[in-house]
Write a structure and sequence with these properties.
This protein is α/β, with parallel strands linked by helices. It contains 13 helices and nine strands. The two termini are 26 Å apart. The structure holds alpha-D-ribofuranose and calcium ion. Calcium ion binds next to α1.
Length: 309
């Protein structure tokens, strides 16, 4: 089967790292490029982590292009208390040798989607600043992108605030631009992704995965667990890649999603109407088939681990 070509906008980030490993390890996905944004940690660190992951995973042909350091209008928020100052928890990957690409992520996103209209899926697993700027710079990308899939949002409760999920809450204005751009956003939110928990049995399987487990998966996930949920941290971002690999893993429901930007307590809330009077602008994940998710993720990681030694 022809792999799905993606461009991945991210803020590595522990779960971003697991998503990148999943995308690279899966024969169903071809990564045309990685762009970085400030989010979990500062842009310099998210970009450095993307470069480290590229070399550790053996993805040296994949361009990494840096993007926006902060949100369109608001002060930068950060999640270093969750992802560690390095952004990869307790994982210590070698410093990168290959440099970041020249230019800006926004131009890379526009140029890459323009070069292959209808062929590339845009996957965004960090704050949506780069994607929003790309939409503003070249509105036609909403037609050129084959699909747009985000890890972000929540119609139940947030994790940055009670109302806002981190990626949306970090830049609500950018998210509002993205949801109102005219394409249909596949929104993999906390409502389903919170169930993708790497419990102890999962981590034990990761321990048997050679360098991949020893140097990346286990030290990052264990740190994530200490910072978020001792019974098993949810590896949110991997859910967006898992959707690209197997769209049957999630239950998706059409909805109208509006992003709150004015609320004092609700800014960044993805106000989700599953019975809109007008057109839907999103397909919202309401359920994840958790056993099949882990079967897929662990199978890809085992295969990747065999390749890495
Ligand atoms: O809310 C989870 C999201 O915020 C994930 O993308 C995580 O990496 C953080 O960016
Ligand atoms: Ca992320």
């Amino acid at each position: 089967m022809t792999p799905t070509k993606i461009v991945l906008d991210c803020d590595p980030g522990i779960d971003d790292a697991l998503a990148i490993a999943l995308a690279h390890g899966s024969p169903e996905v071809e990564i045309a490029g990685i762009t970085t944004v400030g989010g979990n940690v500062a842009l310099e660190r998210t970009t450095g982590n993307a470069l480290r992951l590229r070399e550790f995973l053996g993805m040296t042909g994949v361009p990494v292009t840096a993007g926006s350091a902060g949100a369109l209008l608001r002060p930068r928020v950060d999640a270093a208390e969750v992802h560690g100052e390095s952004g990869l928890g307790a994982a210590r990957l070698p410093d990168p040798v290959l440099p970041v690409a020249g230019g800006h992520a926004v131009d890379f996103l526009v140029d890459t989607l323009a070069a292959e209209p209808g062929e590339i899926t845009l996957v965004a697993i960090g704050p949506l600043t780069n994607v929003a700027l790309a939409v503003r710079k070249e509105p036609r990308i909403v037609h050129w992108a084959k699909d747009v899939v985000i890890l972000g949002g929540a119609y139940t409760r947030g994790n940055l605030t009670p109302a806002a999920e981190f990626n949306i809450g970090a830049d609500p204005e950018a998210a509002s631009i993205v949801f109102d751009a005219g394409w249909t956003v596949t929104m993999i939110g906390l409502d389903s992704a919170r169930h993708a928990q790497a419990r102890a049995a999962i981590v034990d399987e990761m321990r048997a995965m050679g360098r991949l487990g020893r140097d990346l998966l286990v030290p990052s996930v264990e740190f994530y667990g200490l910072a978020t949920a001792a019974d098993g941290p949810a590896i949110y971002d991997a859910c967006a890649i898992a959707h690209v690999i197997d769209p049957t893993l999630h239950t998706l429901v059409p909805a109208r999603v509006d992003v709150e930007t004015a609320g004092r307590f609700t800014a960044g809330m993805t106000v989700t109407d599953f019975a809109p009077k007008g057109a839907a602008n999103a397909l919202v994940a309401t359920e994840l088939d958790v056993p099949r998710f882990w079967d897929l993720v662990l199978a890809v990681y085992r295969d990747l681990a065999d390749r890495l030694g």
